[in-house]
Description:
Elements: E1 13-19, E2 26-32, H1 37-48, E3 56-61, E4 67-69, H2 76-80, E5 87-92, E6 95-96, H3 105-120, H4 128-143, H5 167-176, H6 185-196, E7 204-210, H7 232-240, E8 253-259, E9 261-262
Parallel strand pairs: 1-5, 6-9
Antiparallel strand pairs: 1-2, 3-4, 3-5, 7-8
Helix pairs in contact: 3-6, 4-5, 4-6
Amino acid sequence: MLKLGSKKDHGIDYKCTIRLLDDNEVLECEFQSYHKGKLLLDFVFNRLNLVETDYFALRYVDQNKQRHWLDPNKNILRQIKNLSPILFCFRVKFYPADPLRLQEEITRYQLFLQLRRDLLHGRLYCSQADAAILAAYIVQAEIGDYDPTKHYGNYISDFKILLKQTPKIEEKIMEHHPTLKNHTPLMAETAFLKKAAVLDTYGVDPHPVKSPLSGLKLPTCCPEDHPSTRTLEETVQESRTSSGGQHEPREDVATINTCLRHDGLGPNTIQTPQASLPAQ
């Protein structure tokens, strides 16, 4: 077996797959054992024509189902170890404090795609009213103005936008959609960014933890990486239900919300608030 980074394997090409924020777009890339993460990032940036690159990174899931960010300054193989197949996901790592101040339209669009994923996978947690408005912006960007000759019945059910998309909230989305008449896709996406950026969970990545004394097991990865994993909200809610059906607080369950926001202090500014239970 060849030792990682040895001179013997410098001629070997390794192949990897990179999933972009648009699920319909996948890139294939080759690298060699001595290459660092920057090679893969630059490859993606060039393909997407991204100039404002500080906000983005590549993520992978190791053999223990834990998520990691690929360090651009370190050797690729030494980070992913024996991962096979080699799969990366291109994601927003640092969220701009004010998305509308981004210079490039393509950067804003990539952020829009990320926030759309955050909404779908429950990371952009918000009230049903806010979720319905955000979803209406997405629908407007996708299909344009409401047309009663085309959009009848529950046409929103054709879209998978929210983690818990019920018929009731779909009705609210259909109420908002006609009010966005004459909004171009760019206008709808911009309005989405503006509203999402003021939510408390904008740029927050939840990490569930538990006390060693507790027997409760919580997911350590987001549902996006493991669709079969229940959401943190569902798990905590279940843990709170006593035999009498009442909801009692659990002091040994918490979520560490790591804020990855670019607040003008540099892209490596990370704020970690005190652990707290998610809003009910």
